[in-house]
């Protein structure tokens, strides 16, 4: 069997006395799209942040292609091919769209910058139209696109997405998920954290359900979409 691209083994994470993750085990294979769904405060962001060592897992292991990266610096993890599109987008507001994208090359240098900019503008035509605008003038959906495109500029092996649909209008959410579908079809490995279980499970090969810091359920996207517990807790009972 091949080694997973990302694996968490029995990961615990504490904030002082507060335990945010409990013996979390999960894996993401190369080329897969995997989602982690859960309610507010379930520990989804903490799990993503622990991959970058901030905060460091209190116990357990985080492995990247079999290499133990538990507690390694964010820089090391990024240089190993992991990029994140953070929750709340966090683009650089005063910089132009193009400057934001170029910031994404920081871990790999700008050798491929022109080619990668062209690729991003093909994938996100809206960003081409707004190329010279300051990021603060973009709509929420455009900022989300920019955050994803910036992460892609580092040519990651694994793209982590923290709630890409948060705060966006339904039509924009559809556009974002369509882009993620195209990235997945192109072979990108995606691990996304979402409260929007419906979209996330439809996109994903597999999913995990996090409840109070513990993995409660896992299965294919289709299995979880059909699971009564998931339907009542995360899909409004429909
Ligand atoms: P959300 O969707 O609201 O971001 P989440 O599923 O991402 O929720 P986390 O933000 O990871 O959940 O939080 C998990 C738990 O850890 C919560 O109980 C939260 O209050 C706690 N927590 C998160 N960050 C900190 C912190 N810096 N200090 C103390 N407790 C924290």
From TrEMBL:
Alphabetical GO biological process terms: L-amino acid transport
SMART domains: AAA
Gene3D superfamilies reported for this sequence: P-loop containing nucleotide triphosphate hydrolases (3.40.50.300)
Domain ABC transporter: 6-237
GO MF annotations, alphabetized: ATP binding; ATP hydrolysis activity; branched-chain amino acid transmembrane transporter activity
One Pfam family, short name: ABC_tran
Keyword line: Amino-acid transport, ATP-binding, Nucleotide-binding, Transport
Coiled coil: none
InterPro entries listed in its UniProt record: AAA+_ATPase, ABC_transporter-like_ATP-bd, ABC_transporter-like_CS, BCAA_Transport_ATP-bd_LivF, P-loop_NTPase
Family to which this protein belongs: Belongs to the ABC transporter superfamily.
Protein known as: Branched-chain amino acid transport system ATP-binding protein
Organism: Geopseudomonas sagittaria
């Amino acid at each position: 069997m091949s080694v997973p691209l990302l694996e968490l083994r029995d990961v615990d994470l504490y904030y002082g006395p507060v335990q945010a993750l409990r013996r979390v085990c999960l894996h993401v294979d190369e080329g897969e799209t995997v989602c982690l769904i859960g309610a507010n405060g379930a520990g989804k962001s903490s799990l993503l942040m622990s991959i970058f060592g901030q905060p460091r897992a209190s116990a357990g292991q985080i492995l990247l292609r079999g290499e133990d990266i538990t507690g390694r610096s964010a820089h090391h993890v990024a240089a190993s091919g992991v990029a994140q599109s953070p929750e709340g987008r966090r683009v650089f507001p005063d910089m132009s769209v193009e400057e934001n994208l170029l910031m994404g090359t920081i871990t790999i240098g700008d050798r491929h910058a022109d080619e990668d900019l062209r690729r991003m503008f093909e994938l996100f035509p809206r960003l081409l139209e707004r190329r010279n605008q300051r990021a603060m003038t973009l709509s929420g959906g455009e900022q989300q696109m920019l955050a994803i495109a910036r992460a892609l500029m580092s040519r990651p092996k694994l793209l982590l997405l923290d709630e890409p649909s948060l705060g966006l209008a339904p039509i924009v959410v559809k556009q974002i998920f369509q882009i993620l579908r195209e990235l997945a079809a192109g072979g990108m490995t995606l691990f996304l954290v979402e409260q929007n279980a419906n979209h996330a499970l439809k996109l994903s090969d597999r999913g995990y359900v996090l409840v109070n810091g513990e993995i409660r359920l896992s299965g294919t996207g289709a299995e979880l979409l059909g699971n009564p517990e998931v339907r009542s807790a995360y899909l409004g009972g429909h």
